[in-house]
Amino acid sequence: MRKQIFFNVFVLFILSFFGFILFSSTLRNYPIALTSTIATYYVEHLSLTGALNAVVAILLDFRAYDTLGEILVIFVTISGITMLIRRKT
């Protein structure tokens, strides 16, 4: 039982560490000026999508494949973590 708790804490620590590394490298590599020009483009071209809501237009029209990929990555990650936690020793 004690080994299982140690293993779970270790996996959580490793995943948190890599998450922090990815998050900090993303913030370092993409300046705010780039994101503001992208946001301006999305707002100015909402009429191209035909959607009434700006969030829906961005997620489903401009970034549909990106959103689908992110959902897939999150699903695989959660499945992997669940398998690691529920693994029988």
Short description:
The protein is built from four helices and no strands. By secondary structure, the protein is mainly α.
Tell me the structural class.
Answer: mainly alpha
Contiguous uncertain segments of 5+ residues = none
Please provide the ordered H/E string of secondary-structure elements: HHHH
Seen as an oligomer or otherwise, the chain set is single chain
User: How many independent structural domains?
Assistant: 1
Average pLDDT works out at 82
Tally of individual helices: 4
Envelope shape: elongated
Distance between the termini: 9 Å
Tell me about this structure.
- The protein is mainly α and 89 residues long.
- It is built from 4 helices and no strands.
- The protein starts with a helix and ends with a helix.
